[in-house]
Amino acid sequence: MIATGYAYSTETRRVLAVIRGTDNAAVERAYAARYGDSDSYGLTYSPAFGAVDGLIDSADAAQVDADAPAEPPRKQRTITLTDRAPVKIYEDEWPVIACATGDSCEISDYARRQQALARGECDTYSLRVRRHADGRCLVYSVLDAAIAAWHAPAGGESWRGGELLDAGENLAEAIRRVGTDGGLPDSLIRDCLADLPAEEL
């Protein structure tokens, strides 16, 4: 037997979604995933359309299959910026358009190199640029310092920082500023600049 639930606005009593599932438990799971426990929304199996306290039907109400596989949650990331509060973004809205990573390890043997990195013997660096569809960009870098006892270049002091740029601001200059502020090697800054999308002339 199919169960049908009606999600509605508690303020307007208008139906927001019709949720169908194999049983009430499936409907309630789908409702909770979509609307949480906010007092702004309600769920009923008896809409009583047309009654004094009934719901108001809506042709725009979403049709939800409670038994369909749930969509994976969108991935969020918190980015530390310089001299301002961190920002939280959805990664799919801010794709990476340029990136460079590296480390201070000078060991050529692959296995020994991986061991040194895992043990925190070397500094590791990253410098990234993300762009939103509206043209804004995030330029940020991370320096994860090696354990101080290993005497790596950063001296045991990690760093995170970056800038939020408005559309049209100079990306290359921001990459240079952020990389320099973080003490990243000049070669890594150049690699990030070279990874930017090419300009058409």
Description of the molecule:
- The protein is an alpha+beta fold.
- The protein folds into two domains: 3-65, no CATH class; 76-194, no CATH class.
- The protein is built from four helices and ten strands; from the N terminus they run ββαβββββαβββαα.
- Strands 3-1-2-4 form a four-stranded mixed β-sheet, covered by helices on one side. A four-stranded antiparallel β-sheet has the order 7-8-9-10, with helices on one face.
- β1 and β2 form a beta hairpin.
- α3 runs antiparallel to α4.
- The longest helix is centred in the N-terminal third of the chain and has 12 residues, at 24-35.
- The mean pLDDT is 91.
Domain module count: 2
Tell me roughly what share of residues is in helical segments. 10-25%
Order of helices and strands, N to C?
Answer: EEHEEEEEHEEEHH
Largest sheet: 4 strands, mixed
Strand content: 25-35%
- Count of alpha/pi helices: 4
Structural class based on helices, strands and sheet pairing: alpha+beta
**Separation of termini?**
64 Å
The total of beta strands comes to: 10
Largest sheet: spatial strand order: 3-1-2-4
Task: Provide mean pLDDT, rounded.
Answer: 91
Question: In summary, what is this structure?
Answer:
This protein is α+β, with helices and mostly antiparallel strands and 201 residues long. It folds into two domains: 3-65, no CATH class; 76-194, no CATH class.
Any descriptors?
201 residues, alpha+beta, four-stranded mixed β-sheet, 4 helices, elongated
